[in-house]
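Every protein is a chain of amino acids, and every chain bends into a shape of its own. Below is the pair of lines this work produces for a single protein:
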Amino acid sequence: MYYLLGYARLDRLSVVTGVPGLNRGDAYDVPVLLPPPSEQRRIAAILDRADTLRRKRVAVDALAERILPALFVAMIGDPFTNSGGWAIQPLEEITSVIHRYPTFYGVDYVASGVPVVRISDIQPNGWLDRRLEHYVRVPTNFSEQFPLTVLDAYDIVMAVRGDTTGKLGLVPPELAGANISPNLIRLGPKTGKSTPLFLFTCLSLLQRSTKMLINDTAKKSITAQNIKAIQIPAPSYERQIRFDKTAQDVMGVLDRQACCRNRLDSLFSSLVDQAFTGSLTAKWREDHMTEVLADMAEQARLLGSITTTDQFAPA
């Protein structure tokens, strides 16, 4: 099973023209490594342990998605119905910038330059990917032509084109100074009017409203003018600050969860590669299994601690 799902990667053989599918002849031609049954059992036992952690992580991901919205509703109210009874303001009035450049095309990426944030860089926990080595880059002088889309820490980006239109990402300090692709728009919270985590969570909960503004033609899109008009419940700035302070603790938990997810994926991929290239030998296990098992135990501990974060999500 692990060989077919992980190492052989039958999905790479899929035919993508016409109706996507897998050619049976191509599948039959995939070579299968067959170590002795005793070795197969040892390999499967190792991979089973790593895969169990990955499956637990999926459940944790689902929990993580509920924590921040539940905290917002508990402290502020449901923004869709404005259950808190707050004054309503258009998004444009509580942001310092709402901007995108549709002409940010036609430049070659470079090895060293300004990182460009794309929709794919938005992580499941809401943060942009903090791993700077994962970003494409453009020359500094090119980025300088578009100063209004140069990101500040704790800005918000929103996807404005394609199937993920409305998807939101929060800019960590590591990405301050980066620029954005044409498929994103930059939203900057206005000091004294809106705090970053308040605005990010509020917009996340208002995505039902955002979807009503999407132009659902050949390619989904949403305009800056429509985004500026989104109606936001506006509690006092002091209440927003209190929310942000608590939400920062939640985001710290989500950060650890994202780190755990990335390490689990890397660990599993590494074990699969070693298992089916002959590297996961008895000698290798003797030299490294203590380290691998310790890493698995640490990941299990982190996952366990993350599942206790119901403390942030009031019933």
